[in-house]
């Protein structure tokens, strides 16, 4: 892949283009000034929602991005087939869907076997995961407030997660293990490389076209502004690291560059492949406190009127698991690990191996409370966690059929589809079956 011929540059398939992480990664990839990134072919992106296809094409151009409509991650055959036609899969959508992640690795293995490639240029999967994978369960299980894992001890982290998952299956962890532990990745002669970027709390405004809000600070800020007080689950010693979304996205770009420019020499893979991108650390109680401080400093709180008076002083209310789960789509496990868990992750691998140097640290983190308050007050923070944890089934406008005609696609050996059913650049005959409104179309491509 280090050849200068543009045809030898890897094809990228990216998931999560409509999300916070994936949207920002896509934006950074498509706007990177690096010659090796600019030389890449257009990036294929799996999306739900016809009008989002339009917006992606309008913004980035048909020559840079190739949107592919799909229904959801359960379409594993389609996902495997698409992965088999790409050299790098950036799985930057929900990290909570093991079956689709595994399908991506299977597809890349097919790619590896089908292509007449030089052996150093194996396909790669850049997976996205989260630090709740290594959290304790301080309320329903045992608390480990002093535990810290270090990505330089990659196999220790991997083995720890494996043991945890045998004790209790957790979808995001299962997904990461399915990717890194897949025989194609961790067998005696790996056919696919795979690294998992295991993010902590991500903050800052995203750069994608759709979902631009993080989760933890926006959700707490909205709670604080609505109720007039913050909440705490557990004893408040829960701990998490943080990273700015732009720095995080830069790490993905660095990974792609390493694949293109250095034959992935610096990327850890398989059981050593968990990377912690971290720029600072915070106690959970300080997130609620930061939101209150910002709201009181700006005069947003305390609030009277409408017969409702919010607390005159900054107040953090102790809540139980059920109440905390009202912020996590009713998922009590995510509520516990998210709001009470101890998950200190020390990350040095990205810095030392890839030269990653996050530019947003403590100052940017502090500023984020001010920025998020502004967004919440302006009504711009309606973000919920359901899409992040893959529990948002389908966009309402696609289900009802009102407005623009829903586009529901079923593929049989199909290569690629855009809104106008234009095929991508891949060769080979494919059959495409499409339903637009009530009309069905079959095309030989
Ligand atoms: N946000 C954080 O603070 C954070 C922290 C640590 C780790 N992470 C990791 O990063 C991942 C992505 O987070 P995010 O904040 O970018 O989430 P997000 O903004 O909610 O984006 C999720 C993306 O995945 C897609 N998606 C979700 N469920 C799907 C399904 N069933 N079928 C097809 N597409 C689906 C969404 O598509 P639609 O737009 O069509 O719904 C969207 O593009 C998380 O799952 C987690 O593993 C996030």
Automatic annotation (TrEMBL):
Superkingdom of the organism of origin: Eukaryota
Database matches in SUPFAM superfamilies: NAD(P)-binding Rossmann-fold domains
Family annotation (InterPro entries): NAD(P)-bd_dom_sf (IPR036291), NAD(P)-dependent_oxidoreduct (IPR051783)
PANTHER family, A to Z: NAD(P)-BINDING DOMAIN-CONTAINING PROTEIN-RELATED, PROTEIN YEEZ
Name of this protein: NAD-dependent epimerase/dehydratase domain-containing protein
Species: Apiospora hydei
């Amino acid at each position: 892949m280090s050849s200068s011929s543009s045809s030898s540059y890897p094809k990228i398939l990216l998931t999560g283009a409509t999300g916070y992480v994936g949207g920002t990664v896509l934006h950074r990839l498509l706007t990177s000034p690096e010659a090796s990134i600019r030389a890449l072919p257009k990036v294929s992106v799996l999306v739900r929602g016809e009008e989002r296809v339009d917006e992606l094409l309008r913004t980035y151009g048909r020559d840079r991005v190739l949107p592919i409509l799909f229904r959801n991650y359960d379409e594993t055959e389609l996902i495997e087939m698409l992965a088999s036609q790409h050299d790098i899969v950036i799985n930057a959508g929900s990290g909570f869907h093991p079956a689709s992640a595994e399908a991506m690795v299977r597809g890349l293995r097919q790619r590896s076997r089908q292509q007449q490639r030089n052996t150093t240029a194996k396909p790669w999967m850049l997976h996205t995961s989260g630090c709740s994978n290594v959290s304790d369960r301080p309320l329903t299980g045992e608390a480990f407030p002093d535990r810290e894992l270090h990505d330089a001890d990659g196999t220790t982290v991997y083995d720890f997660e494996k043991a945890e998952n045998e004790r209790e299956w957790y979808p995001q962890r299962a997904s990461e293990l399915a990717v890194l532990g897949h025989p194609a990745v961790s067998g005696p002669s790996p056919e696919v490389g795979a690294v998992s970027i295991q993010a902590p709390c991500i903050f800052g405004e995203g750069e994608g076209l759709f979902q631009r809000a993080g989760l933890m600070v926006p959700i707490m800020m909205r709670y604080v502004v609505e109720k007039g007080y913050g909440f705490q689950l557990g004893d408040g010693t829960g701990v998490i690291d943080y990273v700015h979304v732009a720095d995080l996205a830069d790490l993905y770009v660095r990974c792609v560059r390493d694949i293109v420019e250095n034959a992935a020499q610096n990327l850890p893979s398989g059981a050593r492949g968990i990377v912690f991108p971290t720029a600072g650390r915070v106690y959970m109680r300080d997130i609620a406190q930061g939101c209150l401080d910002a709201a009181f400093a700006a005069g947003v709180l305390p609030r009277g009127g409408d017969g409702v008076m919010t607390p005159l002083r900054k107040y953090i209310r102790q809540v139980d698991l059920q109440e905390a789960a009202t912020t996590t789509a009713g998922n009590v496990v995510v509520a516990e690990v998210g709001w009470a868990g101890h998950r200190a992750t020390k990350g040095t691998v990205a810095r030392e191996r890839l030269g990653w140097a996050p530019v947003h640290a403590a100052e940017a983190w502090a500023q984020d409370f001010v920025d998020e308050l502004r967004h919440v007050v302006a009504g711009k923070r309606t973000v919920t966690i359901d899409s992040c944890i893959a529990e948002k089934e389908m966009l309402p406008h696609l289900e009802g059929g009102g407005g623009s005609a829903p586009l529901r696609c079923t593929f049989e050996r199909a290569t690629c589809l855009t809104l106008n059913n234009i095929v991508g650049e891949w060769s080979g005959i494919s059959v495409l079956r499409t339903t637009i409104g009530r009309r069905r179309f079959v095309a030989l491509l």
